[in-house]
Design a protein that fits this description.
446 residues, disordered C terminus, mainly alpha, two-stranded antiparallel sheet, 4 strands
């Protein structure tokens, strides 16, 4: 029995979407001095991406129908961004690290182009979100158990790291004199886990709201409860607040479909069910974890270490831009530049700037930053022109795209950490995969 190349690619994509968030990797030249931002490694997700690229190239080479190359307006600034990222490596303190980081950028831009082309063709949007949902549920369950134990579970085969509240550099916060470990899952950081969980929550929304059948189907809510509890236990302030804001924005955006609202006998009860379950869950968590919430809600500049470090990194980055505005300090080299200029910091404090726009301006230069911002603006404009939000599912993609860009204002993971980069480029690719003609789906008829 012959298995088509498209089916193989489809299964590779399913595995990729389920497993990309797990920190399964091989680190080159690993030793006690290993630093994430200056290390070289290969993930399981890299191997799957490579296999997808090879399959796509083979189809392109064998089939004339696949040899059409079409460029969109947003592609040109994206190519310019890649060029200036490469040029920035000439300014790098460690050229090998700069080249490695540039190759990673090329990989994920390639992933963006691949997914833009193949999503809705060899894999449906519904299946994409189902995979994201169940991958997130597994991560969420691990994160909940970590919080209960206040230690890792020993799941090294899934990429879980050693976690103890007393370890330097581990994400903790102080509650009544005790260090509390935030949930990591099998990811590098609680903020990454939070991003994975929000993506999974949107996967649940997508499949729950628009599934066939009638009624809210309360039995299918248990994955959502796992995701909400796990997201809460990451104590990732920006991502949690952005999720709540997104939940408010979606019905507001959807309100423009007045005929859709009036004719739908499915959506409104399901929205009410999700809202009610979310509200009850958050109120229960608020009561149980009130001291923890009170601690994390304190944004005092004098005592909040995370806030102080973010401000410090931003200031260092802006100062560096003044000194090297054209090509920056080299892609992937800010931490090394910080080590050179501030040699007395603790080892774990040599981190990237927690703002992707300042970080890109610092490492790649202002021209490269301009190309990157132009790419984002054109991408969102193309999405609006292609959809006009004519399909009630489109607000999901619009809000998700806005979320990943918003996260980049307060964290670096969308452009520095494997899982974060995949989330960033995956969401943008899902937006870019929208058809060029407006679509209106009748929810009553599936």
């Amino acid at each position: 029995m012959k298995i088509s190349l498209e089916k193989i690619e489809r299964w590779l994509l399913i595995i990729f979407l389920l497993a990309f968030s797990f920190q399964i990797r091989f680190i080159f030249d690993y030793d006690a001095s290993f630093i994430e931002w200056t290390g070289r490694f290969i993930y399981l997700s890299d191997l799957i991406i490579g296999a997808l690229f090879i399959s796509k190239f083979y189809r392109w080479w064998r089939l004339k129908s696949e040899r059409k190359l079409s460029f969109r307006p947003s592609d040109y600034p994206l190519i310019g961004f890649l060029i200036f990222a490469l040029l920035s490596t000439t300014q790098a303190i460690e050229g090998a690290i700069g080249l490695f980081r540039w190759l990673k950028l090329v990989e994920f831009v390639g992933l963006f182009w691949y997914l833009r082309s193949e999503v809705r063709k060899i894999i449906s949007l519904e299946l994409v979100f189902k995979c994201l949902l169940w991958g997130g549920v597994i991560q969420g369950a691990i994160g909940i158990l970590e919080y209960i134990r206040q230690a890792d579970l020993g799941l090294r085969f899934l990429g879980e790291t050693i976690l103890k509240p007393s370890m330097a550099g581990v994400a903790t916060f102080l509650v009544q004199g005790n260090l509390i470990l935030r949930s990591y899952g099998a990811t590098p950081h609680p903020n990454i886990l939070a991003g994975v969980l929000v993506l999974a929550i949107f996967g649940f929304y997508f499949n729950y709201l628009f599934r066939r059948g009638f009624g809210p189907n309360l039995k299918s809510l248990w994955p959502y409860l796992i995701l909400v509890v796990a997201l809460f236990l990451t104590f990732s302030r920006v991502i949690e607040l952005s999720w709540i804001l997104a939940g408010v924005l979606f019905p507001i955006i959807l309100y423009r479909f007045k005929k859709f609202w009036l004719s739908s006998f499915r959506l409104i009860p399901r929205l009410v069910t999700i809202f009610s379950v979310t509200l009850i869950a958050l109120l229960v968590l608020l009561v149980i974890f009130f001291p923890e919430i009170q601690s994390r809600a304190t944004f005092s500049g004098g005592t909040d270490q995370a806030l102080n470090l973010r401000l410090f990194y931003n200031q260092e980055g802006i100062s560096s831009i003044y000194l090297r505005p054209l090509f920056g300090v080299g892609i992937g080299n800010f931490s090394l530049s910080l080590l050179k200029n501030q040699p007395d910091l603790l080892a774990w404090q040599y981190q990237p700037i927690h703002n992707i726009f300042i970080l890109i301006g610092t490492e790649i230069g202002l021209i490269g930053l301009g190309f990157f911002i132009t790419f984002l603006i054109l991408l969102f404009r193309e999405f609006w022109r292609a959809t006009r939000l004519a399909d009630p599912r489109d607000p999901f993609l619009l809000i998700l795209g806005g979320l990943v860009v918003f996260w980049g204002l307060f964290d670096h993971f969308p452009v520095t950490i494997q899982q974060g980069m995949i989330i960033f480029w995956l969401v943008l690719a899902l937006m870019a995969s929208s058809k060029s003609e407006p679509r209106l789906i009748d929810i009553k008829n599936g």
